[in-house]
Amino acid sequence: MLKAILRACSFAITVSMATSVAAATATNIADQAEKVSPLMPGLTVPAITLKDKTGKNVTLAERFAEKTTVLIVYRGGWCPYCSKQLANVQKIEAELADLGAQIIAVSPDSPEKLAESKIDSPNYQLLSDDSLLLSQALGLAFYLDDKTATIYRNKLGVNFVSLDGKAKVALPVPAVFVIDQKGLVHFQYANPNYKVRLTESLLLAAVKSVSEQ
After folding, report:
1. What is the pTM of this model?
2. Disulfide: which of 39, 71, 137, 180 matches 8 by Cβ 3.0-4.6 Å?
3. What CA–CA distance (Å, rounded) separates 197 from 108?
């Protein structure tokens, strides 16, 4: 498992701007959501560079070094459950800041899609993982079955990701990690049932526990 996570850090990424479809190498993608193997507490998040809503590179390790981080991995702005989760976390942003924590939310959405979000805060940043680099490294990525993928694509506007030369849909299982300044995971919540999300009270308790260490 660790070897798979480490290999996920090194695969090459190219993005086709003409079709808005990301191209990536599949190194750690489960056949279904129930079979993902999320990174566990006690392990370190691999060094990953993503893009913000302006297309600027953001190195996660550098952001982690600044303060305790609440890392939210969500399916995309098209998902109503994800949008609700992000909005609920926004309500406790001040409390998280008082505990010395920042919020980084990552999805397969393109930087252009992220730019449409109403979330705009120096302590709450949205980042694009449109090639599933981080999702694979965290052990959260999984393939949608063809029927579900077609429904999502036709009705919800989900971007397809070209993996190993094949047009398939892969998404991350929604997850929340609390990470210290060294990139070490102290708390993790990942649920294959995308309708069930971590409560804000439990998230605050997890961050408080890390801040007191």
Report:
1. 0.85
2. 137
3. 18
For residues 130 and 159, the answer to whether their CB atoms sit within 8 Å is yes
In the block, tokens 């305790």 appear at: 68
Q: Report the C-alpha gap between 140 and 191 in whole angstroms.
A: 10
Backbone Cα Rg of the chain:
16
Per-residue pLDDT of the chain (213 residues; tens, 9 = 90+): 434 433 433 332 222 222 334 556 778 999 999 999 999 999 999 999 999 999 999 999 999 999 999 999 999 998 999 999 999 999 999 999 999 999 999 999 999 999 998 887 889 999 999 889 999 999 999 998 888 888 877 777 666 565 665 667 889 999 999 999 999 999 999 999 999 999 999 999 999 999 888
Q: Residue for token digits 């920042």?
A: 102
